[in-house]
Design a protein that fits this description.
The protein is of the alpha+beta class and 149 residues long. Helices cover 32% and strands 23% of the residues. The strands form two sheets. Strands 5-6-1-4-7 form a five-stranded mixed β-sheet, sandwiched between helices. The protein has a two-stranded antiparallel sheet with strand order 2-3. The longest helix has 18 residues. It is globular, with a radius of gyration of 18 Å.
Length: 149
């Protein structure tokens, strides 16, 4: 059957019904933005296995680690926007990761966990949040945030 497409034509783009998003506080330094983003998304891969695709392999057969199967969208907002997004993510029970300002002063994973554990939810000095879930749910969590420039 002839579909009218050339055999070498690219396939239709894949549309995801879920979204991975990172929200950063707008006043972070460039190095902090990169560091926070990397830390935040690392939490999703371990706890939400469906976000990770298959391993990569090049034409020579060299294997590479798998990565997320969909794009990670990065947003920014004020401290208040971040606080509200965090509350909405928790209310919707969406998987999320947090990065607090205290984590810039720690040097290891144990101290990072202790720094977060020492502060009540409402008092967390959030500088970043990663969230995963249905597209419309994540969009509602990020209300008031803007795409990172």
């Amino acid at each position: 059957m002839n579909t009218g497409q050339r055999p070498d034509a690219p396939a239709e783009p894949i549309r995801f019904d879920t979204k991975i998003a990172v929200l950063l506080r707008a006043d972070l330094e460039p190095w902090q933005r990169l560091n926070v983003t990397a830390f935040l998304v690392s939490g999703l891969g371990g706890r939400v296995p469906e976000v990770t695709g298959d391993p990569y392999e090049d034409a020579d057969g060299v294997s590479y680690l798998p990565m997320f199967r969909q794009p990670v969208l990065v947003f920014e907002g004020s401290k208040e926007t971040l606080r509200a997004a965090h509350a909405r993510a928790l209310a919707r029970a969406l998987p999320c990761a947090v990065f607090t300002a205290d984590l810039f002063t720690t040097g290891n994973d144990r101290d990072n966990r202790a720094a977060v554990r020492a502060v009540r939810t409402a008092g967390l000095d959030l500088v970043g949040l990663a969230v995963y879930g249905p597209r419309n749910g994540v969009d509602k969590v990020l209300k008031g945030a803007r795409m990172h420039p």
